[in-house]
Amino acid sequence: MTPNPFSPDTKRPKTTEGVFSAAEVGLANRNSGLLLETLTRDITPTGAHYLLNHFDVPLIDEAEHRLSFSGAFDAPYSLTMDEIRALPTETLPVTLECAGNGRAGVSPRAYSMPWMYEAVGTSEWTGTPLAPLIARAKPQNDVQDFAFTGADFGFDKGQPHAFGRSLTPDELAALDVMLIWGMNGQPLLPQHGAPLRLIVPGWYGMASVKWLTDISALTTRYDGFQQVQTYRFRKDENDPGRPVTTIRVKSLMAPPGVPDWISRERWLEPGRVTLRGRAWSGGGTPIARVEVETPEGWQEATLDAPVGRYAWTGWHLDWQATPGRHVLACRATDAEGRTQPIEPPFDMAGFANNAVQKTVVHVAQPDAIQKDS
Amino acid sequence: MTPNPFSPDTKRPKTTEGVFSAAEVGLANRNSGLLLETLTRDITPTGAHYLLNHFDVPLIDEAEHRLSFSGAFDAPYSLTMDEIRALPTETLPVTLECAGNGRAGVSPRAYSMPWMYEAVGTSEWTGTPLAPLIARAKPQNDVQDFAFTGADFGFDKGQPHAFGRSLTPDELAALDVMLIWGMNGQPLLPQHGAPLRLIVPGWYGMASVKWLTDISALTTRYDGFQQVQTYRFRKDENDPGRPVTTIRVKSLMAPPGVPDWISRERWLEPGRVTLRGRAWSGGGTPIARVEVETPEGWQEATLDAPVGRYAWTGWHLDWQATPGRHVLACRATDAEGRTQPIEPPFDMAGFANNAVQKTVVHVAQPDAIQKDS
Fold first, then answer.
1. Alpha-carbon distance A279 to A330, whole Å?
2. Closest to A99 in 3D by CA, of A45, A54, A58
3. Nearest neighbour of A47 by CB, restricted to B47, B264, B325
4. Across chain A, what does the average pLDDT equal?
5. What is the pLDDT of residue B366?
6. What region holds the Oxidoreductase molybdopterin-binding domain (chains A, B) (predicted)?
7. Which among B19, B20, B162 is the nearest to A371, CB-wise?
8. Tell me, what DSSP letter sits at residue B223?
9. ipTM confidence
10. Which CATH number applies to A250-363: 3.30.70.1050, 3.30.450.40, 2.60.40.650, 3.40.50.970?
11. Residue A183: pLDDT above 70?
């Protein structure tokens, strides 16, 4: 796996600050974020869920698609899509978040997709549990990793590879991993991994491999690029790092009032406004509380019932908005007592920044925000 | 319509160069571009169509939604969504492009959504022709404009307004304007204007008002913000400008080979590669030719049948790729002889930049781009 000398990436800056480069903007134009106003809905509208794809979307003919179980299995096999859809079917709401969400708030900033708050979403995913299918292939006793390979292929840091990730047998036993072919009651869309993807509930999105073609049992540890060379928390260049796994506790507010088109700062009238949003944590851990900061200080929001074990929880709080410019914030704490930091935690790659969201609102008399006649 | 003194926009820069601001990146994260690899398909996959929304997406209960015909009509009326869906129904493939597509390539660059090439897409739109519905309301003889108002509301340059646009009676008679409630065989998605929007085929996207609530007949010219204060071609601050209307001739190439994740530069093996893409023009004008530039010079591509009168035309050309770094380009000419410029045309707001797309490809021996083992 020799780095390619032609790759522009071998010369790319590791981190950057302040203003953004054309390459970062190109990624932002291509990848798409949640529309924050849809946080009022339990399920993110189809097409408004965040999307982060490393390479090109493979446009796959599902009639030709096969999922193979290969490597250190005693009973390797493969399945067509028709065979997969005939398996026991479940539908599960799952909140997915990109490991890079919040990267643009970390300083210095890693040179990558410059997410702010919007790389999250919740869909109803339809598919079948993966564990019984792996058991059916009879993994050999000395298997150390199951490698999941997608059909998407390209270069990162000069290294060509298909997107791939792995889970150990222990991880697989502990997680409710699903093979997915449906999303919000419709066939999976190409850009979300059609015809077949993984969903690893409770983990950041990189684990939920799209366009899944092969599950391989390995008697050594998997060393794919996306497993060992990225998606690791590192403090500096010499830090071997720790793998990024479960989602950190986080919350977002659906921005109240109406926006300014460019700045997205908000405008609302004085008086009672119900602030609403969502909170979630990883690994199936429930949300214990959400606090909201207004000019009157931090107050505890009311929690709705969770949308599902692996899906976000709605929250709301009535606020008496008073004239002026204010910065609103929200902070979630999960059932294991983990809470969001006020300032972004540093990570070399800007992974898992779960610092509190800040929303700028301008509260003004109605005549300043009247409808255009 | 007094500019609001609190608005951050009153102080925003008019134009900028080189690096990008956080506000521009915020817009790029929120709005989403076409995935260029889907240019191989006649119809853009749902959710991969470009999206540009000025304000928040209104989440509308369609059971409560009404379209009203108001103002200088002799027989004003309103319709429920059930009544609208019972009207004569047509499905039409239409290519939509944002007027700001290509803005990031114009220098100096307007401070707004920094589109590069990706603000375009083609969907199958289902709805009913608008003209008979306006006729049924009996416009008075002195009507000068029909104003179309959406449910989306916010601020631009300190001025609060609902998104609105207008067409004159002559424009309405000349254009095949549709009232739309379906997209690609499914109900219209919230972010694309559900439950009801306009499609103005052949014009840039700003004319296709989403979340349509009211059509008003005016005996004066419409002076809404989005009609008179923006979407005008202007050379400088003192230029009163000309309105942005029909789409300019343009073409794009589906990037060949595989991408580098960050730079999106492409990698492919030497040998024959079929270059493919799309070309389109405005006002229903067909595409006459597409030329493709390779290291061997400009060559004429083969055109497919157009997808529809108002939809793009596929093209392809076989190229013998030779090792090295190359810049590929494509250039369309329409049936009225208009062709794409090589360099971006200047406009204050960066509207309608139809300069040729450039795609950087690295052609290397297979061992440099082998699949990661």
1. 9
2. A54
3. B47
4. 93
5. 59
6. 54-225
7. B162
8. -
9. 0.93
10. 2.60.40.650
11. yes
